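Archive maintenance. Older records in this collection stored only the sequence; we are now back-filling the structure field for every entry so that each record is complete. The fields below show one back-filled record exactly as it appears after the update. Entries are processed alphabetically, and histidine kinase is next in the queue.

ARCHIVE ENTRY
Title: histidine kinase
Organism field: Kineobactrum salinum
Length field: 260
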Amino acid sequence: RLKSEPEQFLQFAVTPFGSGDRLVFVRDVTKEARLEQMRRDFVGNVSHELRTPLTVIKGYLDTILANSGQLEPRFLRPLQQMEQQAQRMETLLKDLLWLSRIETVRSKARAEQVDVASLLQELESELQSSHPQRRLELQLECNERINGDYRELHSAASNLVLNACKYSKDDSIVTVRWRRQGQELLLSVEDRGIGIDPVHLPRLTERFYRVDDSRSSRTGGTGLGLAIVKHVAAGHNAQLRIDSKPGVGSTFTLAFPAPA
Ligand code: ADP
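Back-filled structure field:
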């Protein structure tokens, strides 16, 4: 982004040329950047506007169902289904709003020192109350902090852990590890679940991309979890690595640059 022309966006690429010279390519990407901004604003605004009517609908449904004893029995099931779908829509809007927020917030908002080990301990106790039957194995092998945003990192780790639970059997273990390896700090979530066919990996972090639509809807997924993880990673200069084998399991790793 040019300081003198704040509305203009340029992309630079530098490549070696001849002996010691460099070639610099400059591309004007203003049009693409504006379109992308319009798309983000649109999604953010629509999600925000849809929340109010949905809150009213859910409120009435909750009140009606709280007095279900007075209902004709044939209305009970459809009303329960309406309530479930309204709940689903609420989760979807929450994820959409969160995604549009992390796509737009600048990096200076991410300047806290985050203690990842205690973040993961907090996540473990949250999981124990929401999924008491699940076994989470926590391996905290370092106590390094990273520069970042606690809420964003919590949502990325939480999405990975919940996915690991969704796509594996209830009695299988999910391992969460935090360790230093060379110049990197690695946060990995490993499951022994259904795994992912390699053909799906390149598109897995796209919004609403799902390997198996019916399974994901059944498990209550919004299709936005990995898109959120990818954006949180990008905002923290981290890489998202996916290692998976169908029928064996998956490991999702966030690799952060270690502080010098
Ligand atoms: P969803 O809400 O559908 O889980 P995500 O964006 O979190 O959406 O994940 C996208 C897709 O990637 C999922 O629909 C699922 O097919 C696949 N996936 C994600 N995590 C795992 C995992 N741990 N094991 C197997 N498949 C996974």
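Update note: The radius of gyration is 22 Å. The first strand starts at residue 10 and ends at 17.
Entry marked complete.
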